[in-house]
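Notes, p. 3: input format for complexes.
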Amino acid sequence: MSKLIIANWKMNGSIEQIEHDLSIYAKSIYTNNPSVVLALPNIYLYIASQIKNKLGAKFSLAAQDVSEFANYGAYTGEVSATMLKGLGTKYLIIGHSERRTYLNETDDSLLNKIDNTLNEKITPIFCIGEPKDIRENAKYIDFLQNQLEILLKVKSSFDNLVIAYEPIWAIGTGVVPTSEQISEVLKLIKAFVQNYLPHAKITVLYGGSVSGVNASEILNLPEVNGVLVGGASLKPDNFISICTY
Ligand code: PEP
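Output follows (245 residues plus phosphoenolpyruvate):
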């Protein structure tokens, strides 16, 4: 299977940029592929899915967040997994460290988000990652294990699951863990899933300062099933160079 390469645009981009970039991605053999996933701001998914259909493009679309409330209801400002499903959303990022930090996302709300996502047959991209001080205190294994344990409480049935290891100290900093550090954590994640969720087909990603310069080394590590890319996904040239790994 080809490796999953996910562009996380975060709160960036305009409708004009989406029209421009999606037409480039639809033409490139490296990006016109279901394993290339564009996580656009949720508000742009409708237009992105229309452009995708018009171009007959094969890349996939992802949402960056979902409501912890299900279906429809009196939850002003919220967008449910049911609504996102209707926009052609195939994947959904849950638990990104920026949301855990700035929006105070709790384990309970993350669990609801995962359940709602799975109920709509959208694949969650569940993000975990330790801050710098936890890495330096060598407590990161316990910390990450604890973040993974939320998956044991998921009520919905699931076969496919994507887990992204994104050390907070590597996000947007230009600092990238060594290959050994990445492999160690990805092996830990795979062992956890094999032990506790043996039915699940898991895809494990690395994220944090991935660029055209380091993508090939990271993506060629045997444990790495793909990458989550933030800053370097905002310019098509940079993102395509990652996809050519
Ligand atoms: C991210 O925030 O998911 C991310 C990987 O960001 P960056 O690539 O900019 O470090």
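The mean pLDDT is 97.
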